[in-house]
Write a structure and sequence with these properties.
This protein has 298 residues and is an alpha/beta fold. It has 9 helices and 10 strands.
């Protein structure tokens, strides 16, 4: 068990600044570094600190960041989810980490959950300076996830998404959609997902529960599953059998496409269970075992 410090980190990205926390384990001269960010419409303080702490205690450096428009990072409109911008933020942070003298830049690991799990799989297929990837309940196929969206709400949600997109081109105020809502019309529908999402929200940090609706159209078209055959580094992939956001069949297909580089685990969980209690402890233990096997502390 390593003692560690947490330092604030601010990284320029275009006209904006990405806010992050740098976890630095003591007595490890050049630690491997894990780069982390959250999934859809979430802040870094929504349950990700508990993972970062475990990794730092095990001797790994961690950089945990908020996307632009979110949390401590700058950018307007606030709480905008732009898949393009968030992928750019990942690349900005990877570049930053690869230039830090305090870490081993030959041992960079990407960690993603849900939507950020999809991001890091896409990046692992594209970049050549990543050594390993860990994903839990990753968003791998918008087309598959679209089939789980209640049909009675889909036309109205897509209409709102289209109106917001067009309005953004002429400077109109964003039209928003709730992230979760038990009554139906939102980005992530169903009462089960509503309860699960609220279970990770940290009330100490501002979060409106709404996002500009333009993201829905892009989300349903985002398909990391199409890129993963290009991955040739170790991947830890943890899926939930009862996941209502990413159907388990899509996870199985994605993992098959990554073979032989994937270590695949499938547990009888719902999407948000992995952030809590024994399921969290099991996930972290699995992740640490993977890290020790493929990356190592010293």
């Amino acid at each position: 068990m390593y003692a560690y410090t947490v330092e604030p980190l601010y990284v320029k990205s275009g006209e904006d600044v990405i806010a992050a926390d740098f976890y630095r384990p003591h007595t490890v001269e050049k630690p491997a570094v894990i780069l982390m960010a959250h999934g859809f419409a979430a802040l870094r303080h929504f349950k990700l600190v508990q993972y970062a702490q475990k990794f730092a205690q095990a001797g790994y450096a961690v950089v945990l960041f908020d996307y632009r428009y979110w949390g401590g990072s700058t950018g307007r409109p606030r709480e905008l989810v732009s898949l393009k911008a968030q992928l750019e933020d990942w690349k900005t942070m990877i570049q930053h980490v690869s230039q830090r003298k305090s870490v081993d830049t030959h041992r960079i690991v990407l960690w993603g959950t849900a939507l950020s799990g999809g991001y890091v799989l896409s990046l692992a297929a594209e970049l050549n300076n990543i050594q390993a990837v860990m994903v839990q309940v990753p968003f791998v196929d918008g087309a598959a996830s679209a089939k789980t969206y209640p049909l009675q709400y889909l036309p109205k949600a897509l209409k709102l998404s289209s109106q917001d997109y067009m309005g953004s081109k002429v400077g109109l105020k964003p039209k928003t959609l709730a992230i979760v809502d038990p009554s139906g019309l939102c980005i992530l529908p169903t009462a089960e997902i509503y309860r699960g999402y609220l279970s990770i929200v940290n009330p100490d940090y501002y979060w409106s529960g709404e996002v500009p609706a333009r993201v829905l159209f892009h989300l349903l078209r985002y398909r990391p599953i199409q890129d993963v055959r290009k991955i040739n580094i170790p991947v830890l992939f943890m899926a939930a059998k009862q996941d209502r956001l990413t159907p388990i069949e899509a996870s199985r297909e994605a993992a098959t496409n990554i073979a032989p580089f994937v270590q695949y685990h499938e547990w009888d969980l719902q999407h948000f269970d992995i952030y809590h209690g024994q399921d969290f402890e099991k996930a972290v233990a699995t992740q640490l075992e993977f890290l020790h096997q493929h990356i190592g502390v010293s």
